[in-house]
Amino acid sequence: MQRQIAILGAGSFGTALAQGLSCDPNNNVTLFLRDSGLKKHINARHENMKYFPGKSINKSIKAETNLKKLQSFKIVFIALPSSVIFENSDKFVKYINSDALIINLAKGLLNGGKTIVDFLKKELKFKNIVSLKGPSFSAEVFNNESTIMTLGFSNYQQLHSIKSIFKNTNIYIDFTTDIRGVEFLSAIKNIYAIYIGNIDAQSNSKNTRFLVLTKCLKEIRILMKYLDCREETLLLSCGIGDVFLTSLNDLSINRTLGLLVGKGFYNRDIEYKNMVYEALKTMRFLSEILDEKLLKSLPVLHSLIRFFITKENESLNVDFKKLLKNKFKTVLTYGTFDLLHYGHLEILRRARDFGDRLIVGLSTDEFNLQKGKKCEFSYDKRKEYLESLEYVDLVIPETKWEQKKEDVKKYNVNHFVMGDDWKGKFDFLSEYCDVIYLNRTKGISTTALKTIIKEHK
Could you give phi then psi for residue 78, rounded to 5 degrees? Predict the structure, then answer.
């Protein structure tokens, strides 16, 4: 049975993907585009003269400008720039079948850090949508070179459909249900590719290149955690694979930008819109959402933001002592952690990001009674739950208010972290360590959970 596949966008990647998919005779591929002249040329001469001049595309591939015909397709790949999706979605969304499987190929973030999949789901009301990203240069996909991409999906039927579509092609699929991670990685890897390009322009040392690349991967892992993505998604082709491809290959626009910076050819007064637009948008978003202290602990990202966004630095010269500062840092927080919930997990996970070891001071049952609290679970059970979390390294008993200063000294604490409902209460500890107050997770609290439990008893 033939699959009717629409590809929205006849740019370099849309055309290359059409070529790859059409290698399977069961895939009947139509490219949707705006240029009527290019449409005629593709249909008559089987060539995309704009992106692949002189190269033949498979005769089974058709070109179409009438967006109304999208309605008949149940499989639609979106291969448009993110800016086009955001600004011109009204021109195509009304013609896409509501039951169609939508595959987002576009990379980058929209305003406010919104992912393209989130935009398509929430703003355009698409329900059946997946993300497909990976280390895939258009020219090599067009030439039918073996390529791997990561599918971010939400249900088995989507996975089964995508596997069927690519089964008899040279495009292979690894997969994850972490759609958010796949989307964010496609944007974040670009800014680190700039930095690697800058390094390679300043040094011809392979040792230095991979020293910095290792540091970049560590920062990306921390960002994945902060953005509520799964760290293991970094190990897929959309992660390490795409980071390496974009950072180390001269076909990469972002690496090329880094080379220009490193060689001193980058001029801030010249517009580099096609080259730097997406990367700048990602840097700006990260600079706005990251805690200042956390940002400073990410020296690669921090230096990129200071050069491109705040323009505090005149160059991207690397201070290796600062880049590789490896001081072991201990983080300390306190709480009751009764009825362990998502809000608790979030604040513990975010606290751990500030250092290498997280110590939790857990209020004992006796101390809770002094505070007028009665727990659903005993100290031993609450301690057991906390110790089962991968980002909690040590649990100590909190028996009195006054012990915090003693604990900070005893455990050589670098960062004391509490929720912002305690803001200002522990500033006296700033004499001994950094004091950080994190925003609480909205919409959930232990008190609210206890109220629900009582109502259902």
Answer: -105, 110
Query: Tell me, which fold does domain 330-455 have in CATH?
Result: Rossmann fold (3.40.50)
d(CA 347, CA 355): 14
> How buried is 97 (Cβ within 10 angstroms: 0-12 exposed, 13-18 middle, 19+ buried)?
middle
Q: pLDDT tens, position by position, for the chain (457 residues)?
A: 789 999 999 999 999 999 999 999 999 999 999 999 999 999 999 999 999 999 999 999 999 999 999 999 999 999 998 888 888 888 888 899 989 999 999 988 888 888 999 988 887 778 899 999 999 999 999 999 999 999 999 999 999 999 999 999 999 999 999 999 999 999 999 999 999 999 999 988 999 999 999 999 999 999 998 898 998 999 999 999 999 999 999 989 999 999 999 998 888 766 555 567 788 889 999 999 998 888 988 999 999 999 999 999 988 887 787 777 767 899 999 999 987 877 888 889 889 888 889 999 999 999 999 988 888 899 999 999 999 998 899 999 999 999 999 999 999 999 999 988 899 999 999 999 999 998 876 554 545 434 444 444 4
Q: Residue 440 has which token pair?
A: 């609480």
- Under DSSP, the state recorded for 50 is T
The 3-state DSSP class for residue 345 equals helix
> Looking at 373, 374, 400, 410, which residue is catalytic?
373
The answer to whether the 3-177 and 330-455 domains have the same CATH topology is: yes
Domain ranges of the chain: 3-177, 181-323, 330-455
Catalytic residue among 218, 263, 322, 371: 371
Are 107 and 82 in contact by the 8 Å Cβ rule? The answer is yes
373 given a catalytic annotation: yes
Q: What are phi and psi of 30, to 5 degrees?
A: -120, 130
- Look at domain 3-177 and name its CATH class: alpha beta
What architecture does CATH give domain 181-323? Orthogonal Bundle (1.10)
Q: Enumerate the β-bridge partners of residue 28.
A: 4
